[in-house]
Fold this sequence. Notes:
By secondary structure, the chain is mainly alpha-helical. Among the domains are: 28-137, no CATH class; 403-534, Tetratricopeptide repeat domain (Serine Threonine Protein Phosphatase 5, Tetratricopeptide repeat), CATH 1.25.40.10. It has helices at 28-49, 60-71, 75-82, 90-102, 106-113, 116-119, 122-137, 164-182, 198-205, 209-215, 240-257, 263-273, 289-298, 318-339, 343-352, 357-368, 372-383, 403-418, 422-435, 440-452, 456-459, 474-483, 489-501, 506-509, 522-534, and strands spanning 142-146, 151-155, 190-195, 219-222, 225-229. It has a 5-stranded mixed β-sheet with strand order 1-2-3-5-4, sandwiched between helices. Strand 2, helix 8 and strand 3 (190-195) form a beta-alpha-beta unit. Helix 15 (343-352) runs antiparallel to helix 16. It is globular, with a radius of gyration of 25 Å.
Amino acid sequence: xxxxxxxxxxxxxxxxxxxxxxxxxxxxxxxxxxxxxxxxxxxxxxxxxxxxxxxxxxxxxxxxxxxxxxxxxxxxxxxxxxxxxxxxxxxxxxxxxxxxxxxxxxxxxxxxxxxxxxxxxxxxxxxxxxxxxxxxxxxxxxxxxxxxxxxxxxxxxxxxxxxxxxxxxxxxxxxxxxxxxxxxxxxxxxxxxxxxxxxxxxxxxxxxxxxxxxxxxxxxxxxxxxxxxxxxxxxxxxxxxxxxxxxxxxxxxxxxxxxxxxxxxxxxxxxxxxxxxxxxxxxxxxxxxxxxxxxxxxxxxxxxxxxxxxxxxxxxxxxxxxxxxxxxxxxxxxxxxxxxxxxxxxxxxxxxxxxxxxxxxxxxxxxxxxxxxxxxxxxxxxxxxxxxxxxxxxxxxxxxxxxxxxxxxxxxxxxxxxxxxxxxxxxxxxxxxxxxxxxxxxxxxxxxxxxxxxxxxxxxxxxxxxxxxxxxxxxxxxxxxxxxxxxxxxxxxxxxxxxxxxxxxxxxxxxxxxxxxxxxxxxxxxxxxxxxxxxx
Length: 536
């Protein structure tokens, strides 16, 4: 779901959240049977209209094997199963269209799914809409395929090419992390689409655009790939690499369970895994998922775990989405701590063969010693013991105190700074910082004005201790790196964290260097040049 520079996934006050975005049936097997029935009826109708009246062949076993391979994101196996498929078999044609979508060949998928008999079925029509939306969005795109590391990236904007090395690096790391944590290995290539806006995100995935805007969705794992917004699409970037890790976890869960994982499991595990590719950050659990889940339920914003709906991205508000993410993250953390590290891989393996909700319940009970309802009660009893001391601006539905006055002072300070009146700008930013002492963006504006005024000693404490801020913000880290050494391992780590949050801000990407100076690392140098080219 949505993420931006103001915090991690599922956090309030502008923090983006990520969600797998299509309505999930109870089990993929049940959905397959429903879809096949519709296609069979369409085939019968087609046969009755032909001159011979002969029924097109329906190789149901082959269809089911192909669909299972596709849902496991095993394109080579699916291609082999569908090789030399009878063009008259509508059910097999549907799977050929589905496979083309999974492989990113949206033009081929559109052509296959345009057949009237397929378009007349609900599943064929839905897949056709996705294929056509994808084909429109990917016209004249750029594909970068790192075959050595098994990552395929399609860019809607060539200016995002500088982001590709980092996308590839995190994808390769996450392949190893997920194999270790979940017992699931993502096959090569991992496919990533980087798009300009939520309209394209919606067209390529099927998530209603209104839902994407309501909950602030910036990334979706669907159709065997990750589709995510370019960091340039949000004013201060967003935790784009954590977002990628989150969505890759969704793909691993879909592959490992044949798309049978319920939503609470999908999102809870994705939240758990999204930070495991990197070093821990002191703000990773600020505010605590436990505390947000507790407060959200107390304020009527929570949902039962098994009644979150088809997708967190489709909840009525960003606040409810934030609470839902906190709930599932808190529950999975509690369940895995109580059940042991091997419980998750065992559960995924059991879900792969599930055909009903009963199979899920049985698997949970046999693996962990209690059913979901019992675990839910235990977890809620645990939540009741959690301190709920969350700052008002980070609480569900909360807001920054004095927001209007803070915004006015920051804006006036920016105008003064842009005109070279750095001392006067610092005065306005200092007034804003007094009203919002823990807001990192305000601290950065003040620090930048003080630096421009030659008051480095006064600027340094503003970006010294991460404990003094309440959310992750890209420029806080780049200023921290500059003012606390400027070079060496600690500064390098600070600059890296800044890029993880806001890679196309010139100040962050360029490690606070002024043109024409560039960072020494070639990847960061290219990122700096790209950020300067696209800066307003």
